[in-house]
Amino acid sequence: MGTGPVTVSAQLAIPDGEIVERFVRASGAGGQNVNKVSTAVELRFDVAGSPSLPEPLRARLLARRDRRVTSEGVLVIDAQRFRTQDRNREDARERLAEFIRAGLSVPKARKATKPTYGSTLRRLDAKKGRAQVKRGRSTRNWE
User: Fold this and answer.
1) Burial of 46 per CB tally in 10 Å (0-12, 13-18, 19+)
2) Cβ(89)–Cβ(21) under 8 Å?
3) What are the φ and ψ backbone dihedral angles of 127, each rounded to 5 degrees?
């Protein structure tokens, strides 16, 4: 049900061999079921060493400040929202696909701009006006 490659886009799919899934007990409240059954899924995907990711995409994913990515470049996703192992497995794989999809869009390069001549003049005039107001103050006026 959750096996097979993880399809990210029409051109990109992550094969099963690159994904490591481990089933563990879910944390939190839930009664006896939580204590007996290993329904939570810990999915690991080596972003830094994956041959199926193009180099620019890999660089963008590793550059993101995401706490789920370890210092070795391994993405760790813990899925325990649902009561069944299959649903948690699907959830983890979908979250992996969303993480990679977020890196597919290339951010627009920022172009440095200058303030307009008029805005510079307005700013300087405002500064001169404030200076005039402050120049009129003195400690003697407050007595």
Assistant:
1) middle
2) yes
3) -65, -40
CB within 8 Å of 89: residues ≥ 6 apart:
1, 2, 21, 41, 79
Give me 76's structure tokens: 């760790």
6 φ/ψ angles, rounded to the nearest 5 degrees? -90, 115
Separation CA 117–CA 114 (nearest Å): 9
Give the residue among 80, 81, 77, 79 at the shortest CA–CA distance from 66.
77
Name the token pair of 121: 């003049």
Q: Per-residue pLDDT for 98 more than 70?
A: yes
Encode pLDDT of 49-93 as tens digits.
888 888 888 888 888 888 888 888 888 988 888 888 888 889 988
Predicted TM-score (pTM) of this structure: 0.67
**Helices 85-104, 55-63: inter-axial angle, 10-degree rounding:** 100
